[in-house]
Specification:
There is one protein chain. The chain is an all-alpha fold and 463 residues long. Helix content is 78%, strand content 1%. It has a two-stranded antiparallel sheet. The longest helix has 32 residues.
Amino acid sequence: MTNWLTLIADTVCGYPLFLTLIGGGLFLFIRSGMVSLRHLPDAIKELRKKGNTGNGQISSAQALASVVAATIGLGNIAGVTIALVVGGPGAIFWMWVSAIVGMATKYHEGVLAIMYRGADEHGLRRGGTMYIIENGLGKKWKPLALFFAFAGMFGTMCIINTNQLTEAVVSVFTTPQWIAESSFLSFISSVTTLTNLESFRLVCGIVIAGIVSAVVLGGIHRIAKVASVIVPFMVGIYFLMVLYIILTHLSAVPGAFASIFREAFNLNAGFGALIGIAIIGARRAALVNDAGIGTASIMHGESRNNQPVREGLIAMLGPSIDSGFVCTLTAIAILLCGDITSAQGTVKGLEIAMAAFSNAIPGGQYLLLIVVICFGLSSMFSYSFYGKSCAAYLFGRRKSNWYTYAYIASLVLFAVVPLTAAVSACDLFYGLMAFPTMFTLIRLSGKVKEATKAYFSKKETAE
């Protein structure tokens, strides 16, 4: 059964998902008049404004921070490294292209999240693909909204994040001898019948669950406040680390950037190889920035902003931060200090990144671990809210609290027991969220275009 589930997940989350996200995103990019390029300066200006006086729970800036907190995760380090190993430096160029396309998708999600917001049984305004479907496409499409909410409830479980974060801590702080000689771990093992290594992973899982519960049990307000602090902190620390690498390898920087552009259009290996490199880079970016999955509309639907286009402009900054800026930092660091040639044929992206930072910076593996922990935890905060919102749509707000408790408990479980079937199931549900989302965005893209035209026409007249 595990093999069948893994096969289905790999099939659905492979080219069908890639073509849906990239193909649909390209359509939205063209239909919107290249909004992510033409109106990027406007998006930055809107982010600096206040103007959040509507019926919502958080500001537009907090919504963006919470979305970025979810999307900036281990994929920005391990995923980019794997893209470099498999596709070479040229994959990064196509990651940038995918980010631009993803920005157009996120723009549509932000606009429609405000335009077709719904309300729960207590009258609080709510957003998300499920409400966009119900209010934008009509009541007859309610089964599709229920399908999205059901998939979202399971797809946003952080099984892989928990397991990878625990694995990173284990790889940096433990040795076989330390594990075997630890009396504390031996005591836990005698009580639980786990091995000493499994006992250490259990402790990590309990600590992770404790930190996550302290944030997520405070609701969207606490998640947004923590995200507004942790996102600038973790991106700033990561930027300083890469800046140090750049300054200490300054002579190699031009060659690193040159290799990205040269390999992106390298026809020496044939046209098929070029297409393969483009797909690798674009696919990694699509899976990193969550554009078209539907999660962003859940968070932006909580904004106090009542102007759909303004929310869309702010929402589209997300992919520029994660798939653009943060992924580029990883790529430059790996190209300058990493060994991607001898690692070909492997998919241990985090190990390669750890080795690169360790070689380039004194104690670099520990600094990178701090960043990895911040990246991993920030994702868990926002994803818990996404899953709870889907559960609230299906079962009501009060019963959705049970989802949060189950979510926290799963962090402990999957820190110790990496179940292939559970991981595949979450991957499958996560991928299934994209199909109703992209279908809805494309169907309602005309509404977005009309709203965009009216917004900027009014703005030009006022100026």
